[in-house]
Design a protein that fits this description.
Layout: E1 5-11, H1 20-36, E2 39-48, H2 59-68, E3 77-80, H3 90-102, E4 106-109, E5 114-115, H4 121-152, E6 164-169, E7 172-177, H5 182-193, H6 198-207, H7 226-233, E8 241-244, E9 247-251, E10 258-262, E11 269-272, H8 281-298, E12 331-334, E13 343-345
Parallel strand pairs: 1-2, 1-3, 3-4
Antiparallel strand pairs: 4-5, 6-7, 8-11, 9-10, 12-13
Helix pairs in contact: 3-4, 5-8, 6-7
């Protein structure tokens, strides 16, 4: 059996890059293989479009690795245009090459002349991996700087917020009040300020079949949930204040998961936008006072102890169990209701 059966892996990062980039990568791999008499398996060409290398959501790449680590892969080597098509993080790259080498899969980066069958491959992969990693970090800094500039000039940095709509403008995208959704936002604040609980607000909206901002995963019918309403009540944008750069996401080592981390307040960018105010100042203050009072009454204010959400939960361990990977509180994810077997999971 031939030991030169080759799979091809190609990828381009964003929708601003041309899809032709993938065709060019595949063409270069085919030409390289033909020059050496290798066979490219046409049914094992894996492409991911508009997906960044640091992302864990790369379905074609995952399918390729599943076959490579299956114990009986249909190919002997993987051809890529350059090392960044597989990974841009140096630690991820080295771990990946080591696993592929252990599985007997050879990796060839055709434009860089790197072949893991060579004794010098580790050195070359490390050097190019360092360059790729630096590129990612520099790109992140430039992107962050660009988003900061948009915020400071009154543009929208991205994301959707119920009660607003995005409109293209010269130089970027601007937010404006959605006059269909804004009255509902005002009503939610008034209901909560009037003494109705989060669950009560959600129950009332669901009873009236009011459409929520977005459907919940796995639900046939979209519903409002108390946690979503709670976040709305704390969203300063409704008071005409844009707060950007409050947090960042960091990767959990050894996984593709990212967790949210708060930034110091000195790094926040706060811009007053009175034209975006939906909630009057007095109503905003009244709601925030109630949010604080409820938190002091039913929360544990960061102290260890038994009085938290668990005090009103029918599930014994709610508020005590933590996720071993991200540290979030575990919640009931399946089996809610009497007579059903409930299971905890990371939300």
């Amino acid at each position: 059996m031939s030991r030169n059966r080759s799979a091809v892996c190609a990828r381009y990062s964003t929708d601003r890059q041309s899809p032709v980039s993938i065709e060019d990568q595949i063409r270069k791999c085919r030409e390289y293989a033909k020059g050496l008499g290798w066979e490219v398996l046409e049914n094992h060409i894996y492409t991911d479009e508009a997906i960044f290398a640091a992302s864990g959501e790369r379905p074609a790449f995952k399918a390729l690795l599943d076959l490579a680590f299956s114990g009986a892969p249909p190919f002997d080597m993987i051809l890529v245009d350059d090392t960044s098509r597989l990974a841009r993080d140096i630690a991820d790259a080295m771990r990946l090459y080591q696993r592929l080498n252990f599985s007997g899969i050879r990796v060839v980066a055709v434009s860089q002349g790197i072949d893991t069958a060579s004794e010098q491959a580790d050195v070359l992969v490390t050097v190019h991996g360092l360059v790729d990693s630096l590129y990612v970090k520099e790109l992140a800094k430039k992107t962050h700087r660009g988003l900061e500039g948009r915020i400071m000039h009154g543009f929208h940095a991205g994301g959707r917020c119920f009660g607003y709509q995005s409109l293209k403008a010269q130089g970027g995208v601007r937010l404006e009040i959605n006059h269909v959704e804004a009255p509902l936002v005002l009503r939610i604040f008034e209901m909560y300020a009037g003494g109705i609980s989060l669950k009560g607000v959600a129950r009332a909206l669901n009873g009236e079949q009011v459409s929520p901002p977005r459907p919940r995963a796995g639900k046939k019918y979209a519903t409002w949930c108390p946690s979503g309403i709670r976040e709305m009540l704390r969203r300063e944008l409704y008071a005409g204040r844009v707060i950007w750069n409050q947090s960042r996401f960091v990767k959990v080592p050894g996984t593709n998961r990212r967790v949210r981390r708060e930034r110091p307040q000195s790094e926040w960018r706060i811009v007053e936008r009175p034209e975006l105010r939906i909630i009057p100042v007095d109503l905003w203050q009244k709601v925030q006072e109630r949010v604080k009072a409820v938190g002091e009454m039913f929360g544990n204010n960061g102290r260890a102890g038994l009085v938290a959400r668990s005090a009103t939960s029918p599930y014994l361990l709610t508020g005590f169990l933590k996720c071993g990977q991200c540290g979030a509180n575990l919640a009931i994810v399946t089996g809610r209701g009497p007579g059903r077997k409930s299971k905890y999971g990371c939300p």
